[in-house]
Amino acid sequence: MMREAYRTQLDDLREEVRGMSELVIERLNTGLDALSRHDDRLARTVLHGDEAVNQRYLSVEELCIELFALQQPVASDLRLVAASFKIATDLERVGDLAANLGEYTLATEGEAFPEVDVTALGRFALSMLENAMEAYAANDPYLCREVAARDDQLDTQCERATEVVVRELIETDHRDDVGTETLLADVSRLFLTVRDLERVGDHAVNVAARTLYMTEGDDELLY
Amino acid sequence: MSDNDMNEREKTAMTEEQIETEDVSDANRGRVISDSTDEADDVLIETGPTAGLDDDKPSRGTGQTIVESRNIDVWYGDDQALRDVSIAIPENEVTAMIGPSGCGKSTFLRCINRMNDLVDICRVEGELTLGGKDVYDENIDPVALRRRVGMVFQKPNPFPKSSRDNVSYGLNVQGIEGDHDEIVERSLKQAALWEEVKDRLDESGLGLSGGQQQRLCIARAIAVDPEVILMDEPASALDPIATSKIEDLIADLAEEYTVVIVTHNMQQAARISHKTAVFLTGGELVEFGSTQKVFENPDSERVEDYITGKFG
Amino acid sequence: MAAGEDAVGRLRRGSGLRFEQLKGRVFEALLIGATLVGIVSLLVLFGYIVFDAVGPLAASPRWYLLYFGTLVTPTAAFTLYARRRPAVRAANARAFAAVFGGVVLSLAVYAVSDALSPYDVFIYLVFGGGPSVSIAVYARKMNDNTFAGPAVPVSMVIGVAVAAGFYDVLRPIIGTVPRWITYIAITTVPVAAITGWFAAREWTTRRGLLTAGVVVAGGFAVAGGALVSGIDPSFWVVLFSGTVVPVAFVVGSTAATNPEGRIGMLGPFVVIGGGLLGAVVERQFGIAGLDSYLTPTLLLNSWDGLNAANAGVYPQIVGSIIIVAFMGIMAIPVGIGAAVYLEEYAPATGWRGRLASLLEINIANLAGVPSVVYGLLGLALFRNTLGFGTGIVVAASGTLGFLILPIVVVSAQEAIRSVPDSRRRASYGMGASRWQTLREVVLPEAVPGVLTGTILALGRAIGETAPLVIIAVATTTYSAPSGLFSSATALPLQIFASAGNAKPEFRTGVVAATAIVLLALMILMNAIAIVVRNRYQKDD
Fold first, then answer.
1. Is the ipTM here above 0.85?
2. Which structural domain, as residue segments, surrounds residue B17?
3. Which of A154, B110, B152, C27 has the most CB atoms lying inside 10 A of its own CB?
4. Residue C451's pLDDT is what?
5. Buried b or exposed e, range C18-37, using 16+ CB within 10 angstroms
6. Chains linked to B by 3 or more Cβ pairs within 8 Å
7. Domain at A4-216, CATH from 1.10.10.60, 1.20.58.220, 1.10.8.60, 1.10.10.10
8. Which one of B161, B167, B169 would you mutate to disrupt binding with C, by most C Cβ within 10 Å of its Cβ?
């Protein structure tokens, strides 16, 4: 084995990305918990924790640029660094989305549409991200393809959730119960939440696609 | 800011080129496959040596193969330096050969212009064609062959003559008619050396700096208008600035000539070549394909390990 | 605190280290001692010889004062002046080379031509040199080198053969011409051609022709002047062509190209003028001079075994030069040819390769064979097998030729081997054939090395005694050899013979003076070798 320092740096990069992903996943988890339990304290933790993710993101970016500049990685090393560079961006965005969840929690008073299981959607998206990161850590191309395949499922579920809300809006007359303003706020928040969770799935697919490129040099999932 | 712009443009250009490559390769696929079926069986690593024959058609140049070897074996005495090398080098492109020391890449280079003939114990078997003619045919005079295949060596080796005489050396020994002064000027301009030496053409070429000497050697090689220029680590003895000049020059030369370059510097191969051949220990050609492919996603595990520095 | 002291302690010289340094110094002192032993013993030897040869004790203090004033002081002053001025030094060196080289060359050419008969030299020169030079000039003019390589030496050989064949017809015809005209033909004309060529290269063809014409006209003028004064013009023609013309050319071109160094050309004239002035004053005032045997008599007279003051070694000097020159003509081409074959053509493998390496080993060993053994070879070959006469030039040259052949081969091989392989590869890579590579790249670069080795070999040959004794070369002849088949002797033989003379002034004075003449010849050859080498090395 040669270029010991370089290899160590590549391992460090991988570790750094994994560390970042753990942080992001944890935050997403917390966000989902906050959302499901209407826990304002948790929500605030999520809101304020974004800074840490950004720090990790900058450090991954720096590491990648350093590797590009000083070590001129090629072949699988090149793909690892390039993929990590992109994956970090995706993870950072997921971190932002987690913060959004905290925001929504704080803004919500009560359960507006209990028949829409936002937490389940969230867990599903979260599991996709977790699997994508597992694939990244283990260089597992099969898992990558599986994550990508599950995106359709998530999309369908999200669509269905939206549909449920819209249908209920049409069928039920809410004008009596609560103020129209509140209803409007609740509905749009719910849509935003669903959209954000779908985004998490998209980012998970991106991570999987980059990981697949990284492991196999295959850009079939990239578009 | 402007740097960024440039990179951006370059990137775009590259992507376009890439797309073009794929188009061409698709168009040619049918023909080439039928071409190479008879050889694919002989090759140990499927993806390697024949890769140059059946995919990644040239992104530029004429798309013709100019130098082609089939199952070349080379021995130095009892040591085998090259094993069953088959490769098709495209015309008007830069083909780089990389690999660890002693992998046979320079040996292969010297097979092309039969410089190995000068080594008594060297034995070459197999077929190597230049423009369709077997250069190891009995009727082929190596001297005549070398007039069509120029060579630039690792260490700049101008003759202890004036710059002018250095460049016109090939014209004289080959008995080429014409206005030598004009050819000298043109060659020096092509080698990007004219401005630096035009006032001291009659001074010894050994008085030039290393990088200038190497460009003088390149001018000497192109003065006789060869079809192929072989370069054996042409920049390994030069400083980075001189190296950059040589690399720019190689890119220019590829407009008119076919350049085959052996280099130890993988980044250099990546920078300047269109195609890359990777030789590994034991004299095997393990992979041959477009440079981008080789450096981004090589087919062979061993090539991967080599270019990422996992073994050397 | 403690750590600091510790570090200082470690840095201080320990006794072990001091002992190591002592050993080093002792070793160095021993090496200096060894060098000094060599140098000092040589100096003592030379001093002893010089002392014997020139008898410095006989001269009065006034004599020393006189020459100190006329010769040593001006020369020293001039040297000091030139020391810090490179331009002056360069001009000085050129002037010295022209003056002394010209004088020595003129004397040697005159002595050899006079001994061999200028008519013969003329015939062979015209037939051997004429066609080959014209071919070379024509090839150069046509810018076509395809035929010159083989044609020049072939035409030379054919020309010499033709001259030998028609010698009996030609000689009487040529013999009707006065001697001095043949000297003009064999010295003035070539010198005129060379200076004319230089001038043409520097300026224009017209000027070149003019220069050549002026030189030839000068030759005739000198001859005419001598005829009018009633002396034989031959020597003066040679001196004019070999010394005056080159000196004038060097002076002229230096004055034109190196104005600030112009004064440097006075150097040799300061020395010569000082010496002459001293000699005039010495004679005029009857100052007691050296009791020297190193006199014009020694150089110009022939041997007198009874009267040391009258003994000269002129025939020996000319004999040595002719023997060595003819030996060089025979051995050098053969030796260089063998070296070129072994280095450039001989394969490394196969039976021819084995033969070549066998040859190479044997040649290297032959270079170390004692010279007496070569004498036996010469005796067996020239005398017993070919039946040549005793002590003739051909036999002596041939024997010495065998002696230096391995030296020439080995040194030429070294020189050819020192041409970097990268140059050969570059040439082959340009599509040059082996012969083109050899001619255009290898030989031009090997020439200085080959020449140096060759001239050193000539120096070795000129001092050889033993092989000549074995092939029974006469120790003393009273006239210079008149041809290749006439008997000759050489300086070292005369030294060897007269060292056993009954009279002590021979054993000390004449022998020492003759030895100095021999040493001067060798130093001259080595100086030529050094000049040639430096000249070519500067080009790199």
1. no
2. 1-33
3. B152
4. 85
5. eeeeeeeeeeeeeeeeeeee
6. A, C
7. 1.20.58.220
8. B169
